[in-house]
Amino acid sequence: MNVGQSMTSQAEYDLIIIGSGSVGAAAGYYSKKAGMNVLMIDSHFPPHTDGSHHGQTRIIRHAYGEGENYVPLLLKAQSLWSDLHLQSESPIFEKTGVLNAAPEHSEFIQQAIQSAKQYNLNVDITSGKEAKVRWPEINLPDSYITVYEPNAGILYCENAIKSYIKLANELGCAQLFNCEVTAINRKGQGIEVITQDGTYYSKKVAVCAGTWVKKLLPDIPITPIRRVFAWHQADGRFSQNNKFPAFVIENEQGEGFYGFPAVNDELKLGKHLDWQPIEKKEERLPFGRHPTDGRALLDFLKHYLPGVGGCLYGASCTYDMTADEDFIIDTIDENIYVVSGLSGHGYKFASVLGEIISDFAKGDDCEFDLSPFKLNRFNQSKSS
Ligand SMILES: Cc1cc2nc3c(=O)[nH]c(=O)nc-3n(C[C@H](O)[C@H](O)[C@H](O)COP(=O)(O)OP(=O)(O)OC[C@H]3O[C@@H](n4cnc5c(N)ncnc54)[C@H](O)[C@@H]3O)c2cc1C
User: Fold this and answer.
1) Which residues form the FAD dependent oxidoreductase domain (predicted)?
2) Domain 98-150+223-321: what homologous superfamily?
C-alpha cells in the first residue's frame, strides 16, 4: 500500500470493496443491505477465470479437518448460503453429503472428528472397510477412518457470486468492474482508492483481492501458487443419483484430494496442495502445461477410484497460501480490513466473511473469535 500524506478529505462512500470475487461479492451485498453507501470494484467482471473461484462448484464441509476454530464461522456461512439459495434464480447449495477419509493418524481426520464432537455435528464415523460397503466405488484401505457428513454438500460458486452482485446491484450498490485498483492511500480520516478509472474516497476499505493482494498490500504474508483440477469420465455409479458424495480423501502420504459427484458422466477432481509458487499472473500456465498436471490425479484415481476413466479436460487456478494455511482476517489500520490467505479452502466461508466485513464497516462488534486469523501470529512465530 502507498501510504499518502494525511490530508482532510470528505469521504464519499462508507465502504469501498477492492476485489468483488468470492468474498468481495458477499461483502458488497451484506454491506449494502445493512444500509451503507458502498462501492464494489474489481479488475474483472466476476465471476471470471482469472482468480480462485472458477470451475462451477466448491465443497462445503462442517466437521473441519483444518481445525475446530473454523466451525462457528462455517455454521453461520452455511445458513447464509441457504438464505442466498432461497433468494437466487440458480442453485447455490446442494446437500450431496461429504465423505472425509484418511489414515487413522491423519491430523486432518482427527481434527474433523474433534470438531464434530465439540459442535455436536451430524456425522457418521466409520472405518474404510465399512465405508466401502456403502460406496463400493471408493476403494479405501480397510484401516482408514471416514467421517461422513450428510448435511454438507456443494456450493455453485459462480452462481453465488453472480447472485450476490445482482442482489447488491438491485439494492443500489455502486459497482465498478473491469477496473483495476492501483493504490490505496490514507487521506484525512478516510481512504483514497486510486483506480484506472479515477480516484474514489471512502471512510473504510475492505481488500478482498485474492491471489494478487500483494500488489496493493506488499506486506501481507501470502504466496501465490498455481493449482489444477480436471474433469474425468465417470458413469452413473459416481453420480448423485447413486448417492455418490462429494469427498476429501487423504492418501497414505498425507496428500489431499477432493472430488464431486459426477454430472453428465464427468467427475471433477483436484489435488489440494502441491506448492507451485508463482510471482506473476502470466506464470499461471494453462492445464496440461506443467509436467505434474495429469500424473498426480492418475495415481490417486488408480488407487482410490479405479472405475473413473480418463481426463476429459482441466483448468488451472491460483491459491493465496499462508505459511500455516490458516486465513488472514484482520485490520491493517482502523479503516482498512483485509481478508486474504484463504489458502485453497476459503470459498465455503465467503458468505460469512462478507457479513464480517459489513460489521467492520458499520463499526459493529464481530460475533466470532477471529484471533486465530490475525496478522500478528506471523511476527510471533518469527521471534519464537
Ligand atoms: C480449483 C480450486 C478448488 C477449490 N476448492 C475449494 C472447495 O472445495 N471449498 C472451498 O471452500 N474452497 C475451495 N477453493 C478455494 C476458494 O475457491 C478460494 O479460497 C476463494 O475463492 C478465494 O476467494 P477470494 O475472494 O479471496 O478470491 P477471488 O474469488 O479470486 O476474488 C478476488 C477478486 O479480486 C479481484 N482483484 C484482484 N486484484 C485487484 C485489484 N488490484 N483491483 C481490483 N480487483 C482486484 C480479482 O479480479 C478477483 O475477482 C478452491 C480453489 C480452487 C482454485
Assistant:
1) 14-359
2) D-Amino Acid Oxidase, subunit A, domain 2 (3.30.9.10)
DSSP state of 325: S
Tens-of-pLDDT digits for all 384 residues of the chain?
Answer: 333 333 334 459 999 999 999 999 999 999 999 999 999 999 999 999 998 999 999 999 999 999 999 999 999 999 999 999 999 999 999 999 999 999 999 999 999 999 999 999 999 999 999 999 999 999 999 999 999 999 999 999 999 999 999 999 999 999 999 999 999 999 988 999 999 999 999 999 999 999 999 999 999 999 998 888 999 999 999 999 999 999 999 999 999 999 999 999 999 999 886 666 777 776 677 777 677 777 778 889 999 999 999 999 999 888 899 999 999 999 999 999 999 999 999 999 999 999 999 999 999 999 999 999 999 999 875 443
Residues annotated catalytic, as ranges: 54, 57-58, 268, 272, 317, 348
Is the distance from the beta carbon of residue 347 to the nearest atom of ligand 1 less than 6 Å?
yes
Domain locations in the chain as residue ranges: 13-51+158-220+324-383, 98-150+223-321
**Cα separation of 306 and 86, whole Å?**
38
For the chain, what's the residue count?
384
End-to-end CA gap in the chain: 28
Distance 190 CA to ligand 1 centre (A): 27
Is the C-beta atom of 206 inside 6 A of ligand 1? Answer: no
Query: Which of 16, 22, 49, 271 maximizes ligand 1 atoms within 8 Å of its Cβ, making it the mutation to test the pocket?
Result: 22
